[in-house]
Amino acid sequence: MLISFAIAQPLINAFVHGTRFLEARLSDVPLRGLVSGTLGLMAGLVVSLLIIPAVKTLPLIGAYMPLFIMLVLGYLGASMGYRWRDALVALPDTLIAHMSKRPERKPRKEVAKGAGDLAADFLPGTRPKVLDTSVIIDGRIVDIARSGFLEGPLIITPYVLDELRHIADSADALKRNRGRRGLDVLNDLRECGVQVVTLNKDYPEIVEVDAKLVMLAKDLQGCVVTNDYNLNKVASFQNVEVLNVNELAGAIKTVVLPGETMRVEVVGRGKGAHQGVGYLDDGTMIVVEGGRDRVGETLDVVVTSVIQTNAGRMIFVRLED
């Protein structure tokens, strides 16, 4: 009796811990994943029942093969069902839509092949635009959308939301503020009148978030919106269109040529002995020769040169008089 109790107690503890671990893992799985995984498991078990009678008669290993086959095919069925969860969940709606389609109408062209029923959520004639974490934290996407130069749908993914949440919970104050600003930007986007779609489509075989965004944009036949240099290069290499906010900002900067005149307000002193500093409306720095002692004044100046640096563009001017 004591021996049985000593053996049973560790087994019970292991069973309880295993059950709690399984419950914790399943609580993070979305409902569609549970449904599709269960259907896949049932399909795998049905196939195993068809195979077991043929292998039970094998010598030596015949007695062990049924359990082995059920475990392997059950696992494969559950895994494949979870991987194809979007297509399985969307299958009834697709069949109903196909059966109710009028014969005299031409079938609509599928906008996003391989993306389940996602095309039905998008406006006809528009291209989905997948937002990455950097462009959301940057915040300029809100002004671009509000001005009407960027139409929807704008795609937000759960893994981008997870990145923003981790940044917002960071112990570093700077990162924490950037993450919270990104979450505020998402709320501002929904108030701009642009279609914003939270798309729960994952690629479990891909680890990096940037690679998932590129694959999603390719599946949706859309484009990636970013200001990340590396993501820009990777997406371009895979023939995925990229909308780079930094390139847009550089393209709309005011064009000035040497010899042109302008008016500029001197707002501070420059690094040079006689230099003052001003700015254009787009943030371009203007270095005013002879403006060091004219802070606070609005002066008529003449452009002498324009220099492009890694930090941006600088315009050098001198006083017109």
UniProtKB/TrEMBL annotation:
<dbReference type="InterPro" id="IPR029060">
    <property type="entry name" value="PIN-like_dom_sf"/>
</dbReference>
<keyword id="KW-1133">Transmembrane helix</keyword>
<feature type="transmembrane region" description="Helical">
    <location>
        <begin position="61"/>
        <end position="78"/>
    </location>
</feature>
<dbReference type="InterPro" id="IPR002792">
    <property type="entry name" value="TRAM_dom"/>
</dbReference>
<keyword id="KW-0540">Nuclease</keyword>
<keyword id="KW-0378">Hydrolase</keyword>
<keyword id="KW-0460">Magnesium</keyword>
<feature type="transmembrane region" description="Helical">
    <location>
        <begin position="34"/>
        <end position="55"/>
    </location>
</feature>
<dbReference type="InterPro" id="IPR052041">
    <property type="entry name" value="Nucleic_acid_metab_PIN/TRAM"/>
</dbReference>
<feature type="domain" description="TRAM">
    <location>
        <begin position="255"/>
        <end position="316"/>
    </location>
</feature>
<keyword id="KW-0812">Transmembrane</keyword>
<dbReference type="Pfam" id="PF01938">
    <property type="entry name" value="TRAM"/>
</dbReference>
<keyword id="KW-0472">Membrane</keyword>
<dbReference type="InterPro" id="IPR002716">
    <property type="entry name" value="PIN_dom"/>
</dbReference>
<protein>
    <submittedName>
        <fullName>PIN/TRAM domain-containing protein</fullName>
    </submittedName>
</protein>
